[in-house]
Amino acid sequence: MLDLKDKKILLTGDRPSGKLHLGHYVGSLKNRVKFQENKNYQQFVFLADLQALTDHAKDPQKIINSVTEVTLDYLSVGLDPSKTVLFIQSQIPELCELNMYFLNLVTISRLQRNPTVKEELKHKSFGESIPAGFLTYPVSQAADITAFKANYVPVGEDQLPLIEQTREIVRSFNNIYGKTLIEPEALLSENDVCKRLPGIDGKNKMSKTLGNAIYISDEPDVIKSKVMSMFTDPDHIKISDPGKIENNAVFIYLDAFCQDQEKLLELKEHYQRGGLGDIKVKQYLNEILQEELRPIRERRKELEKNKDYLYEVLKKGSEIARSVASKTLFEVKDAMGLNYNK
Questions:
Q1: Is 243 or 203 the better-scoring residue by pLDDT?
Q2: pTM higher than the cut 0.90
Q3: Which domain holds residue 248?
């Protein structure tokens, strides 16, 4: 039985709709590895397969395959199942029941106004046929968060409206039925660059959907090819031309990954005054990324040899998670007067 006494709870997860990329890595995965070493916290990390189905319902095999891929990414970057509870959303039926209760506390108009949902809909091709599950997934997220009484939810800035939606639901529930649920707080990355790493096109946030991502599991030649194609300063035509580092994807990545701040400052100054070509800067970034990802990729290849271990990790984690969620569900139903056989 998991001992949560005197622990602060962190809950976070990912939609298994493909392998994880560098945006996930610097934006959340590295912090998860750090948090699991802090004895004051208990971390829950889950694969949101139900949420992924809200826009992939006709292609469930993609989600099923991605559960394995994302788990490999989790373990290869250093998440330890003996310290972090790793589980699958669909294996916790209590979350669906909580979701049902919370849906009655939210209006359709409020969901339609959610900035994160509105932004995501721009990148979908639903037209007028928006799946109800997609529109209401912020409520499902609220069920995920409150089921584990999470104190903190690590998110990117674009996800803040979702946390606010959860806080509203918690306040509404507690006001109606009595204080039962915890109002969570968003936890943002301390590194501003890591909050929203751009894609290699320099125009959009790195995204699996937009095809502008460098994946954690990419092979060395693929990483190099993507880095060498990255967006820089369009006005930096000749090497002798002064270049801009603002909104320059290569330098944004260097800010996120380069540990040698003295050398990075020197590169920036040289680029800005002219005389430093894009190719040399990209070559330096490629070296840094290769060094960062090499041990992760090697661990991943070892883990790929034992898929049974992956499923055992997820099975045990889901059992632990369900025991915690069922306790919260009992308390929720008790507050609502629905525990008839009590």
A1: 243
A2: yes
A3: 220-301
